[in-house]
Amino acid sequence: MSVIYLLISISIVVAVAFLFAFVKAVKTGQYDDDYTPSVRMLFDDELKKTKNNPNKK
Amino acid sequence: MDKETCYHCGLAVTKKEEIPFDDKIFCCNGCKTVYEIFSLNGLTDYYNFENAPGATPMDIGGKYDFLDNEDIVNRLLDFKEGDTHIVTLYIPHIHCSSCIWILENLNRLCKGVSSSQVNFHEKKARIIFHADEVTLKKIVHLLSSIGYEPYISLENYDSQRKKVSRDLIYKLGVAFFCFGNVMLLSFPEYFEVEEYWLNNYRGFFRWLVFALALPSFLYSASGYYVSAFKSIRAGLLNIDIPIALGIIIMFIRSTADIIFDMGQGFFDSLTGLVFFMLLGKLFQQKTYNFLSFERDFRSYFPIAVTKIQPDRTEVSVPVYDVATGDRLLIRNQELIPVDGILMSETSSIDYSFVTGEAIPVTKVSGDKIYAGGRLEGRVIEMEVLSSVSQSYLTQLWSNEVFTKKGDRNYKTITDTISRYFTPVLLLIAIVSFLIWIFMDTIQAFNVFTAVLIVACPCALALSAPFTLGNVLRIMGNRKLYLKNATVIEQMAKVDTVVFDKTGTITTNKKSAITFEGNEPDDKQTMLIKNILRGSNHPLSRMIYDQLPATAVVPVDGFEEVTGKGIRGTIDGFDIKIGSASFVEGAEETPMQTCVHIAINRHYIGRYVFENHYRQGLRELFEELGKNYSLTILSGDNEGERRALERLLPPGTRFVFNQKPEQKLAYIEDLQRHGKKVMMVGDGLNDAGALAQSDVGLSLSENVNVFSPACDGILDATQFKKIAWFLRFSKNTIKTIKMSFALSLLYNVLGLSFAVTGNLMPLTAAIIMPLSTITIISFVTIMSNYYARKGK
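Predict the joint structure of the above. Result:
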């Protein structure tokens, strides 16, 4: 059962890694605007299509 | 009649006026042009996201010529390095996903723009462009031409980048990390089963929990310690004191417990407590990023004006650089930035925002014109008398009331409760300690700490933030945007409501015009209308628009006498239109704004300009009159007194001809008599009064346009709901009080465990989250219930 030391330590390490990722994300301003990315995601990449077919209107 | 809507902007178009293009209907050439621009560049997807998302582009003329000036541009840019320039523009028309799409595809419309990013909530677009290929002015012109004109004011010029405070988010993240892990690791011990393996690893779990609770205790909760300390130093008792006390005692007791192997400790409750408290703080912090409640005169004034050099060339200068003796050129719809003397023959200036006068003022050559008015009509030239900082308007803002406001610390309802809470709590703890000390010393300490732990006013402190946060959101959905949560509490305490007249209870739409006298017949109407056509005076134009269409006939001998009226001859008929002194047979009416008509020296009658009152005004005042004393404070003349007295309930006070300082003094006077005043206003002339009153609401036809410093911005369409908002705020306070009672119940329950020495960590760990969740659900349900009531 002493493996539990190892298991719990690893899970703590993983949790801390996530905490770091969170802090980094906040620092770079990822959560300052929480609405626009949700809209932006839904835009189609029309850009590619029209670029390839300049003759097509 | 078949009413179609414009494909671009959605306005209704009658069959006659429609402009068809490419199988679609447009209301005007402006909209059609924008559509053409989009379709030429393959951007017609703009119309796929929303229906009619566009706006008619305004004619901007030379409005942005000041962007030719390098210094000004440098101050507006966020970033400038070599060729790459970055600018953040506030674009009020951003309101839907189409807007985001087109603005982020700006690079397809304009070669020099490399990319752009929109922040929807703040209505800002951050544009990165190459200065070699395109200038800021070209970008602004492009944006205006597609209907997305940016709003650039003196404020952008002056302000520095604000540092965003993300402290609370970090603390919350750490608190949640600790909370989640500690809860999981506490589980083994909850079940108190005498298993062999648990005895061996108990120490490991307990010390791990201790280590995990440390960041939460030291970092996340630090705000509470600081606040409690400050409060003690100031001699006050706020709600953070028992919270900080509870947290510290919890930590000490738990550490002692695991060192002396007396128990599991209360780390799980501690981390849970810290997490929920911080969540409450975040919830209360709702800000409206696209609005500004701190506007002062700088966001009203333009950045630059056109100066006329001695050699008659025109150059754009920043408004701060304007000096006495300079000659300035002001165009139609532009603001007069400084006090000065009119050089041109005549001009018509709209001061409604500044003084509250409803009708534009006519000035002639040599007259002094004051800053803040908006020019209507032809271009004028003026000579500067005093610089921006010395103008009358700016002096208005240096009144100390604007700095005083920030210092006023309102007692919130939570503070009031906490004054009694802390002493009572300490009393109970000490009494229980003294009782137990005679029976069992160890237990005495246990009980003492248990009382302080379980009575920690977690639920009490959360009642207000969650309720107010929810109410702020609901009010925002109903188009009343409040600066912060304390305004709601102040609104509930108000007993007097003061209204401004012009622009607040009257709309800015055209005044209603009625005719008094012998109603002109068709022939006379034709004569009048043809004479009016030649005049640019705003009153002439208003009457002209109101008269029905007639045949156009040539006018002989048209003459406009400035300040008096106009005259002309048609077909032998001599027509005179104007003021009472100009038109024979007219009587003076100092109380009303009238335009008199005489044909062939025979007096016909006069057009009387009435203010157009907002819909629902009478009902609103009737309802408010029941619980509040009402006053109308106006910068305009007494002319409307009779009409208002008829419209509004008796007991309403009317005060006219108020200058801005007098409005402020009036509010001060009311407050000296112990009244709590709410002021509803809209213009610069209300700025002082809005700041002085306990709650200042700014009424706004278009929330994107400037409104003076206030506590809340109300959309003009919701004007008639003011009584509802006031009632809702009162109900909010009721809800908070009810939830206080509920949380006190939990405290009593917890105390019954603590005082009898039965407080197990598991019990505490259950009571805390349970009370929190109950309170949160309760206040959310109640505030939504009150919101639905009496819509």
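The two ends of chain A are 70 Å apart (CA to CA).
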